[in-house]
Amino acid sequence: MLNEPTKRTMTLNLTEAEMRALETLAVQKDLSKTAVIRQALRLYQLVDSRLSKGEKLFFEDEAKREKAELMVMI
Amino acid sequence: MKPQRMSDEIFRKRAAEEDGCMVSAIGLEPLFAKGEELHRRRGEATSEPVRLAFSTLISYRRRALKLSMETLAQKARVDLDELLQIEQDMSYVPEPRTVHQLATELKLPIPQLLVLSGNATSANAELTDAAVRFAARSRAVERLNREQSDALNEFVKVLIKQKVQNIEK
Amino acid sequence: MSSRRTCRLRSAERDDLVDADLVDELSKDDLVRAHLDWAPVRLEALKRLRAANLPWPEHWHWDWSQKAGMLDLLAYRCMGIEHGGRMQGLMMLSTVAVKGRLAQHLGKPALYVEFLETAPWNLRALTGTPQFLGVGVRLLEAAVVFSQQEGFSGRLGLHSLPQSEGFYRRYMTDLGLDPKHSQRLRYFEMDAQQVRYFLEGGKS
């Protein structure tokens, strides 16, 4: 078994709506809530890294041939 | 879920199955390959005549199929601007997706077009030689004359032959 | 912070199992060192192949030092197998889950293998006499274990170079050419049953 790296603990304060969203995502993705948060953090850092290099993030609807930029300020 | 481990007996079997294979995997365009990709795009990969061959091939093939730029761009679902750049700007390296779309629409073999466009490398001397010969014989005129048609047909034959040979391997 | 655990490789010469280290989180320096170690051996092998009019491997131009920058992000993790102070194989994983594509995986996260390569001296096609066998198997095993630890139940996905398709087809489902991949490679996915077969044998 791969040794688990040292983990640190933090308490997360969420609103009811945020907790519901987290629980829903966990069920949908078949992940623990912790795993969902970790996925979110990795994705956030990844997106932030590319945006800060001047790249843009788009959603694309191939069927409609539409592209829309995701205007986020991270 | 408790992670499982392979027993020595199973590992020996799997190792024997791996022997003789070249195990490798390559992902979706990874972020930080950009440095490597740019390095390739700047000239390590494609010489000018080969890139000229790519531009001319797209242009001639489009005209041989009696397609306007607008029609091809629409059918291949690429930007018209980009198509114009492909046909006219030797330094421009299109995205692999664009090359796929164009190759599919123009019924040309994708792997060879990826090499000609500068998106992939190949140690294949026959392809490079054929591309250089094609570039040398071609000239940019509005309608293909007989000579240009012949040059185009010969070059496409080489590309398809390469594709068949690669499949047979 | 990386950790090591012992894994066994098969020594081709002695035909017995030897202990190696699976390092589960490599640093950028590790990748640069591996590249500097592998590149000259690979180059000599390529020269021999050219002289013999034999095809080059499809990944002949890979440069792991160029991939080192990926490790600045949590989204990537590189693992390697080390023996005798040399990397015997490397594997870059995406820790941001991909969507499973098998019917039984739809909507579920899978671990994606970005890059996987065995050291050139371990490839029979390059050297004639490989040093170690089973490096690819051990890396795939490590990917399965990591997928389980991440909560993905061992689900794995990867795109294979044509030269490797036969190997992956033994243990994974071939989902065909992927038009979204820049080189239109075939996409393979491993489900729970296939994980069991891969690790434990029995019926596939």
Share of helical residues of chain A: 40-55%
By CATH's scheme, which homologous superfamily of chain B applies? Answer: lambda repressor-like DNA-binding domains
Distance between the termini of chain A: 37 Å
Average pLDDT metric of chain A: 86
Number of strands of chain B: 1
Give the helix proportion of chain B (percent range). 55-70%
Strand-residue fraction of chain B? Answer: under 5%
Q: Give the overall shape of chain A.
A: extended
Give your account of this protein's structure.
The complex is a heterotrimer of chains A (about 70), B (about 170) and C (about 200). With about 70 residues, chain A is mainly α. Chain A has one domain. Chain A has helices at about 15-30, 35-50, and strands at about 60, 65-70. Chain A has a two-stranded antiparallel sheet with strand order 1-2. Chain B has a single domain, classed as lambda repressor-like DNA-binding domains (434 Repressor (Amino-terminal Domain), Orthogonal Bundle), CATH 1.10.260.40. Chain B is about 65% helix and about 0% strand. Chain B has helices at about 10-20, 35-45, 50-65, 70-75, 80-90, 95-105, 110-115, 125-135, 145-169; one strand spanning about 25. In chain B, helix 6 crosses helix 7. The longest helix of chain B has 23 residues, at about 145-170. The radius of gyration of chain B is 20 Å and the shape is elongated. The model of chain B is unreliable at about 30-45 (pLDDT under 50). Chain C is α+β, with helices and mostly antiparallel strands and about 200 residues long. Helices cover about 30% and strands about 30% of the residues of chain C. Chain C has a 9-stranded mixed β-sheet, with helices on both faces. Chain C is globular, with a radius of gyration of 17 Å. The interface of A and B includes residues 2 and 49 of A.
